[in-house]
Design goal:
Layout lengths: L3 H14 L45 E5 L5 E5 L8 E5 L2 E3 L22 E4 H7 L6 E5 L8 E8 L3 E13 L5 E13 L8 E14 L2 E17 L8 E18 L5 E16 L11 E18 L3 E16 L9 E16 L5 E13 L5 E15 L2 E14 L3 H5 L7 E2 L7 E14 L2 E20 L6 E21 L2 E15 L7 E2 L6 E14 L2 E12 L10 E12 L6 E8 L18 E9 L1
Parallel strand pairs: 3-6, 20-23
Antiparallel strand pairs: 1-2, 3-4, 5-6, 7-8, 7-30, 8-9, 9-10, 10-11, 11-12, 12-13, 13-14, 14-15, 15-16, 16-17, 17-18, 18-19, 19-21, 21-22, 22-23, 22-25, 23-24, 24-26, 26-27, 27-28, 28-29, 29-30
Length: 615
């Protein structure tokens, strides 16, 4: 239920940011809102405030495997990879969590400060990613507009959330655009099932300078999250909890055209702390699991055109991390420096028969001070033809390699005892992706499809063995054959997006004794997504996300391997009060009990009702 006492901080902050709202005799001119359509319908969750992971839950090419709810803890997998194969990048720099990929999505960044996500796979991910060998999710810093928003919502199980955002823009005497925005958010709930409560807070601010074709962003954010869930990480029916605190500071400068010559430099610092309880009813009964990681990173990249047909592109990125832990103490080191550099050449051939042939070739080198480095190729040949602004075709073939090192949870957990059993000798995993694809755009219709074969070698997976009260880190070689397709249709009153993915795997764990896999073999053999955004009238919008999946069998999963998941939102833009929006939303509309992670209970159906006021 919505608690009136909790509204006061948001109203006070709103008034402080926009004092003119308290003046009844002042007329405020509202700026237009510019939105970019994503491939999901509901970007906002039911249970908490929006986070970058919120807009990925029904993304056709991204598999979000949630514990409790996606914003609590979720593993982000792409093309059948595991949670540590998917990276996040803001502007020109990657955000790395060296402890575990489970915390990769711990990002104290409001989606209101970001452009829509770009999902990089294949050659693009191999060149632009960092310590993520399958995919990289890229978020560019959005230009700041002089606008604001106050959002409040409440639902069952004592659930409520609130957020406030404000952007301010000023022009300088030299013609530059100086801007700032801030955001505050809070949510809490008693939980849809016993032991599923949460309490989250986020504070974020940004300064932005735009001068000509150059944009500079300085961001700082802090987020705290406490949440619980039965079997959060272990299949032993304990009431587990996480207590996380994440601070991120990022600086990004980019100059140049978006599709031509440019250069970009970036830096960030991230601190993440975690206090994990395996059984909240018996605090400390197991070894304390308390960790702190810090990462400092720098990146530089650029593209230069050499005449009308040639271009070269280069990128270099480095990161240094440290770990302090009460339990991850059995490894060989607790600090590491790693880096990656790449270069490629691009050539365009104009064909007499029409269209153009684009060829790109290059390589990347990934290395660290605790092991051996690896050289990997990046190559693509693409034929493309543009008949009109809304009529284009692109067909491509590519091969790309990448590599990454294991996290500290895998490297530094004791090999023979404890709930999580690691291996200090795990080496650098490497991956090679072979791919054929096509994209066709015609008027309001757009379709893209790809078939790929990915060969992962020495990939770190967490496995289960009957009779052993632990999960163990084991290296596995896996070949993944896949097909994915996404079709989008837009019309004046809305848009529809349909996605389909088919995967097949062939795995080899060597001499390791494995009865079940929590991650590498936790994938959908077939997955269908369907998103609909429809405005039957100007004041009403219906947003409907759906997913059907047939999961690879896993004896740890107590639910059916088939699932239908849906999220439905109805939004009313009140014509009598400009800027006011009322909404109701339901998550897991069919109350599906599917375990997205084996042995982790599903989140039951949940409802919320809310309002948003924008100025």
């Amino acid at each position: 239920m919505l608690r009136p006492s909790r509204l006061l901080p948001f109203l006070v902050v709103t008034a402080a940011l926009r004092p003119e709202l308290l003046a009844a005799d002042e007329v405020v001119t509202l700026p237009p809102f510019v939105t970019t359509a994503s491939r999901v319908a509901n970007d906002a969750p039911v249970t908490t405030f929006p986070m970058p992971v919120s807009g990925l839950r029904y993304e056709p090419t991204v598999d979000v495997q949630a514990r409790n709810f996606a914003e609590g803890q979720a593993d982000i997998a792409v093309r059948g990879g595991i949670f540590e194969n998917t990276g996040f990048r803001f502007g020109g720099i990657a955000v790395v969590d060296p402890q575990t990929g489970h915390y990769a999505a711990e990002l104290p960044v409001p989606p209101s400060m970001l452009a829509p996500v770009r999902v990089l796979t294949g050659a693009a991910a191999a060149f632009d990613g960092f310590n993520a060998s399958v995919a990289t999710l890229v978020y560019d810093w959005a230009p700041i507009d002089p606008r604001g928003e106050l959002a409040l919502a409440g639902g069952a199980h004592g659930t409520w959330r609130g957020s406030v955002y404000q952007g301010v823009v000023r022009s300088t005497a030299g013609g530059a655009r100086l801007a700032a925005d801030v955001a505050v958010a809070h949510s809490e709930s008693d939980g849809a099932i016993p032991g599923g409560d949460h309490k989250f807070d986020r504070y974020a601010g940004r300064l932005q300078l735009i001068r000509g074709d150059a944009q500079t962003d300085l961001f700082a954010g802090h987020q705290t999250k406490f949440f619980g869930w039965p079997n959060l990480y272990t299949p032993f029916n304990w009431l587990e909890t996480e207590d996380l605190a994440t601070t991120l500071v990022a600086l990004n400068h980019r100059a140049g055209a978006t599709d031509g010559a440019y250069w970009q430099s970036s830096a960030l610092w991230r601190r993440n702390t975690d206090d994990y309880e395996a059984d909240r009813t018996r605090p400390g009964v197991f070894n304390p699991y308390e960790h702190e990681t810090q990462v400092t990173a720098f990146a530089l990249e650029g593209r230069r055109e050499l005449g009308a047909d040639w271009a070269v592109r280069g990128r270099a990125e480095a990161a240094a991390d440290t770990l302090e832990s009460t339990s991850l103490t059995a490894g060989r080191f607790n600090s590491r420096t790693y880096w990656k550099a790449g270069a490629e050449a691009e050539r365009t051939f104009t064909l007499a028969t029409g269209g153009a042939l684009d060829v790109r070739a290059g390589a990347t080198w990934s290395d660290d001070n605790r092991g051996a480095g690896r050289l990997a190729p990046v190559a693509e040949v693409a034929w493309q033809r543009t008949a009109a602004a809304t009529d284009s075709t692109r067909v491509y073939a590519q091969v790309a390699g990448d590599s990454q090192v294991s996290s500290y949870t895998a490297l530094n957990s004791a090999a023979g005892s404890g709930l999580f059993r690691g291996n200090p000798d795990l080496g650098r995993a490497h991956s090679t992706n072979w791919e054929l694809g096509v994209r066709r755009s015609l008027g309001r219709f757009d379709v893209q499809a790809a078939v790929f074969l990915r060969q992962d070698r020495a990939l770190t997976d967490w496995t289960y063995r009957r009779g052993v009260t632990a999960r163990s880190a084991n290296a596995v070689d896996i070949d993944t054959l896949g097909f994915e397709a996404v079709a989008t249709y837009r019309w004046q009153q809305g848009r529809a997006v349909v996605g389909y993915t088919w995967l097949q795997k062939d795995e080899d764990y060597g001499s390791a004794l494995v009865d079940a896999s929590f991650y590498a073999l936790n994938f959908a053999r077939q997955r269908v997504t369907a998103a609909l955004v429809w405005q039957p009238i100007a004041q009403l919008e219906i947003r409907f996300d759906n997913e059907y999946r047939e999961q690879e069998p896993n004896f740890l999963r107590r639910s059916s391997a088939r699932a239908i998941l849906s999220s439905l939102g109805v939004h009313w833009f009140v014509p009598q009060v400009r800027g006011l929006e009322l909404s109701v939303q339901v998550e897991n509309a069919w109350d599906c009990a599917f375990e997205e992670v084996p042995a982790v209970p599903a989140t039951p159906r949940q409802y919320s009702a809310g309002l948003a006021y924008r100025w």
